[in-house]
Design brief:
single chain; alpha+beta
Amino acid sequence: MEEQSKRIWKETVAPKYLHEVMGIYHGVWWPDMDRCWLSNDGYQVASRIISTEWGKVEHATVQIIDDSGFMSSNGERDIPWAVKQQIKNELFGEKRLAIEVFPKQKNLVDVQDVYHLWVFPKDFDLPFGIHPTRDKQCRVVNRGCPKNADYLIENTRQMRGISSDLKRKENSENAETSEKMPDSDSYQLPKFLEGEELSSDYFDPPDPYLDTPDSKYALRAMIDYARKTGKRVIDFTKEEAEAFLIK
């Protein structure tokens, strides 16, 4: 997987220095950010270390900046989870755990497209998790199931029907302004799947409620890598795709 990331980081002047020397940055926590890195694909990460009852935690901000150095505040520079995971690994290490917080609404600070990671010391682990062998598995509190689920089934049908209606309307509107989607027979098979036996419904849209699609590849990581390198996933060779095999 080492070939997955071509990102290059360089440490740069931190907000703390600019605040103390030039008086540029102000605020509650931003002037305390004493480390800063820029990547060759437009990410900026700044951090400070705070002392907590859980030990020393590194508070890191992650954001996308343009050539002018300005940040956005309307969500246009959202950062996918997979990219934040990569950045955490690259700058703070694969063996360190980090969390992203969704606060109480009264504590919300959301004025710019800046994302906060709280990076814990190397040996810190949460007392719960979903990994079947490496996370602590906690006792599940049995809340029971409704004895009569008919209304839940009906609600599901109604809401999925509304979703389907909206999707059909969107597809109809798109059809008026764009060319018709090609039939499944004309879809191009990715190079790394050539020679493999595929089911007859391979190109059919999956129903995530009934038939969640399975793949032996980490597709999100593969797509992110393709975007960064300017490639198309369908052009990946078997050798390139092997870097994304789920082990």
